[in-house]
Amino acid sequence: MSHDIYIRITKLALAATLIASASLALAQPRFGNPSPTAGSDTSQRANASADQALYQPVEYTNANKRGPAVIVIPGEIKSNNATFLQKFTANNIADFGEVELSSANFPVLERSNLGPLLKEFELAYNLGDPDQARKFLRMGKLKTTKYVVKFDILKTEQVAAAQQGFDGRAIGNIAGLLGGYGSRGGAVASAGVGSVQTSESSGVWIIGMRYKIVNAETTEQVATGYTEEKMEVGAKSTSVLGVSNSQQGGVSLDTMVQRLVQKSVWEIDSKYK
Question: Which of 98, 137, 204, 205 is most buried per CB count within 10 Å?
Answer without folding.
Answer: 205
